[in-house]
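seq:
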Amino acid sequence: MPIDKKKMDQLATKRRKAVVGGGEDKLKARRDKGIMTARDRVLSLYQPNTFQEVGMHVQHQCHNFGMETKELPADAVITGVGYVDGRPVAVASQDFTVAGGSLGKMHAYKMCEIMKYASKAGMPFIAFNDSGGARIQEGVESLSGYGQVFFRNVLLSGVVPQIAVIAGPCAGGAAYSPALMDFLIMVKEQANMFICGPDVIQAVTGQKTTMAEIGSAAAHATTSGNIHFVADSDEHALQIVKRLLSYLPSNNIMDPPHELDTKLSLTKHPSIEQFIPADPKTPLDVLQIIGKIFDAGSFFEVQKDFAKNIVVGFARLKGMVVGVVANQPNFKAGVLDIDASDKGARFVRFCNVFNIPIITLVDVPGFLPGVQQEKGGIIRHGAKMLFAYAAATVPKLTLILRKAYGGAYLAMCSKDMGADFVYAWPTAEIAVMGAEGAVKILYKEKIKSAADPKATEAELVNDYRETFASPYQAASTGMVDDVIEPAESRMILAMSLRNTLSKRESRPPKKHGNIPL
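struct:
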């Protein structure tokens, strides 16, 4: 006997209601503006016909303020699992066309359930944030829902990669869920993120501001450092998500997707030498060095507009996935300051929890001096770099390009901070401070009494640099494993990395270290 047609029609009707969300008119209005719908984002993320939705028929349970007569399709959030480049990935996509994407009890329940599943099954979790915030009609239950989501974000942290896409409004408490995730991508123009808006700030403090100053993608990418990538559109955001996933393992038990079939050979690449200035005082552009050391076109920079004096990102070296941390002498001479320390430390810790080897390129004159830096806690922030590197047990390779002075030398993963191999170019200068500063202190009287103080000082600086700041001095005590030609950098780092992929390092049992936050 054939199945009851009425039952089948009922299912089809319910599915149609869920699929159209807030209605065809609202969906069309968004698309006409060039903005994707919540379901468009999900279907565009995954390979065709692989998305398996969970919770399509979930409905809110609020009976106050006239809500008992309202249907909210899928309770304003689409959740499920699909495939990205052959790997399963979990998703939660808030639907602004349904009650402004507001979060209530069942909305939060759906998000938490898919996050639980992502943790159990060991797959990345992607969240599309596009919500007006807490559903006021549900009162404290909406607040409770946020708390449950935050709790799940923390449980997933370090277990599976979490990526947030800020694709619309993300205000108040809602901003803390993406803040607890690993990477934040924000779509400029159509998205904003803030705790207190301009009106609230003015009412409470009297300060006048604009949304562009506090909540825009530009503000978060450059000033606050709250986000990692700026997308031009929904489509661009999805491209960033997919590229980011291509460097990451699905969970903390797996290795990243290395391509180990690439053959290694000790072949020199002299083209790198054209980017190294003859004068050590002339800044080099570390992005050009990165482009020559790592596989062509593979470097994917993270937080490129924040703390530009340090560069972090993912790359491949002869097919192997690595995290890259490098000083950028083109900006603030490459010094470490508060923001650079925070940026570098967080990236190192991410790489460590997901088994991604770290390669550090060093050209650092020290920590940034200044009253504001001292008052702002440069000691505490700089210590984060030391903590992050020392705590990391993944393969760690360090290449000293030029300057490596004082505590910043240590903070950029020296041998003493656990580097497995440390290499240096012949141009490297490793010392407590620069030769000029050291000579002024050590030979103050001698320079003062000399017949030609300037000539004497210049001679002493050269002698000090050759004798005490030379890479061979550090190599003689084992702090540098080898002094190499710049043209040898790619092949030596690749070979050392391949030999270190099998590294296993245990630490004393403990819950976790207490990083200086």
